[in-house]
Specification:
The structure is a homodimer of 186-residue chains. With 186 residues, the first copy, chain A, is mainly α. Helices cover 74% and strands 0% of the residues of chain A. Chain A has 9 helices and no strands. In chain A, helix 1 packs across helix 2 and helix 1 crosses helix 4. Chains A and B meet through helix 6, helix 7, helix 8 and helix 9 of A and helix 6, helix 7, helix 8 and helix 9 of B. The structure holds a DNA duplex (30 and 30 nucleotides).
Chain lengths: 186, 186
DNA sequence: AAATATACTTACTTATTAGTAAGTAAGTGC
DNA sequence: GCACTTACTTACTAATAAGTAAGTATATTT
């Protein structure tokens, strides 16, 4: 059983990734959890503070995941990273980077900074894995690790969005293409 | 000199791509154009109707562009398509597909349909160019045309978003990578 | 048992939202 | 010169937004 505080973050996270930061309200959370508007303000002084907490929670989840994956091969780690995005589709959600990045100009400063830090964290990890993988000859790619990293994060972010617009197979196409691109040729 | 009606669409389009559909208001448009709130309602009965008009205008602009490009080589046409996305960054805007797709669940039905139609239109055009280009041996790629199309549209949509989050080079990296991928190997 | 902290609710405020009803001034058609 | 349309403004409404001040019930500490 989660604390009310943690439940608020979970619901806010879902609402942000389903509807976007500017389309969800305290009333949405309150009605879902059967509490009052003011109870959310008791735990989070403002929407900006709650929004930042949602990003922080995602960063922590990401760090947990990478630790869990750390004994896998480089290819398997990238595949697990890609699969993490795919899981969002099941809940009719996009990733937090796509949901918040598309509204970046409207976000409070504290959220902007936290989101930028989150992106740096993800990028640093992915580039390191890609470089290690190439050294260990577990994966291969015909571009720089930075370029491959940007191609992967961009591809996954956007294909979740586009799969809502078309009832189609953008995610599957992009996923397959990216994994084929890093697969070691024999 | 544009008509007020057309000016409203231009401003709404900019606001959507700068702030998102749920973060702009009639007041934003009214103050920019020095008209009253109600004047916008005179031209567009509801925000949904205005939103749909914005997408329709983007579709028309896209069709104009593809006509202008039609005598170029396949490679040049894809390059022009990619450059069309890049132009958005100068105005601190993302593409309309990213701006509206990320809020898809919150859009009125008429806008959802128009956005889906716009995506189909773009995809049909791009796949055709990619297939033609391969036949004419002007371009090459080691995946299906559908996969390459999804990789291009995803990459461009997301890199505009991510370049706001990082003050970095996602767009340039993705652009270079994608063009290299379709370049004919000699 | 008294004091204090925790986790809320009740009741409210102020600002902003899309949207509307009624009026007006400047043309256009006949 | 009268009817009608176009392109608005004025003045408003109802709903919803985030946020707050004050009160309350329950548990914990001293």
């Amino acid at each position: 059983m989660l604390s009310t505080r943690k439940k608020i973050v979970v619901i806010a996270d879902q609402l942000i990734r389903m509807k976007g930061y500017n389309a969800f309200s305290y009333a949405d959370i309150a009605s879902t959890l059967n509490i009052k508007n003011a109870a959310i303000h008791y735990h989070f002084q403002s929407k900006a503070v709650l929004g930042k907490a949602v990003i922080t929670a995602s960063r922590e989840k990401f760090k947990e995941n990478t630790t869990l994956w750390s004994n896998k091969s480089s290819f398997e780690q990238v595949a697990a990273f890609i699969e993490m995005y795919s899981n969002n589709r099941k809940n009719n959600c996009i990733c937090f980077m796509g949901a918040l990045g598309s509204s970046f100009n409207t976000l409070p400063d504290a959220m902007k900074q936290e989101l930028t830090d989150a992106h740096d964290e993800i990028t640093v990890w992915l580039i390191a894995i890609l470089k290690q993988g190439k050294e260990k000859q577990e994966i291969d790619y015909d571009m720089t690790a930075e370029e491959m990293s940007d191609l992967i994060t961009s591809g996954m972010l956007a294909s979740l969005i586009l799969d809502r617009v078309t009832k189609n197979t953008v995610l599957d196409n992009v996923k397959r293409t990216l994994l084929t691109r890093i697969e070691k040729k024999k």
